[in-house]
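Entry 12.
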Amino acid sequence: MGSSMAIDASDIRTSPGSDEFLKGIWQQNPIFVQVLGMCPVLAVSNTAKNALAMGLATAFVLLMSNMVVSSIRNYVPRQVRIVTFILVIATFVTVVDYLIQAIDLELHKSLGSFISLIVVNCLILGRAEAFASRNTVSRSALDGLGMGVGFCMALLCLGAVRELLGNGSLFGMAIFGDRFQPWVVMVLPAGGFFALAAWLLLFSWIAQVRARRVKIEEATS
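Predicted 3D structure (tokens):
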């Protein structure tokens, strides 16, 4: 049932603006399709809370940097384009770093240096260079928002699975009874690879189902 719902959602005809937003959630999902930004994906997705925080932080930086890069794209010389983009990204990463530190100090300690590493996340710099530097502010904002939401959702899926199986809890709240035997490996670095592999297999299977459906429709039309 889940796969059919995903297929139906992807077949809805949308406006060009909606396409820019929706492509990052499904067709070009940064984690499950493009496999980008794997460093924080595997490192901080051991709990749903950490995964959600990192996903939201990355989405904020992606959205804001896309908008700023698009705004200044006609004024930045080509020779310093990449350096300028990195400076813009680093500025918003610093803002996020201080915000998380002010809101939840323990969460900030849990995420550690991975907050600062958002600066070198290939997803953010890639969208700035490949999309925001060549499109309007509105399209760049939709692209950044869609990619950010897709990244956050994928990271949350990984974090939820790892915390459920590794601790028997979700956002720190116990879900299973006392008889549940946690899979300790899921909260270890190796668990990130196992969870990611399972989600990639699921997305690959859904993509194959969609491809077969398209072929059947073309053959019968």
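Annotation: The CA atoms of residues 167 and 173 lie 10 Å apart. The first strand starts at residue 169 and ends at 170.
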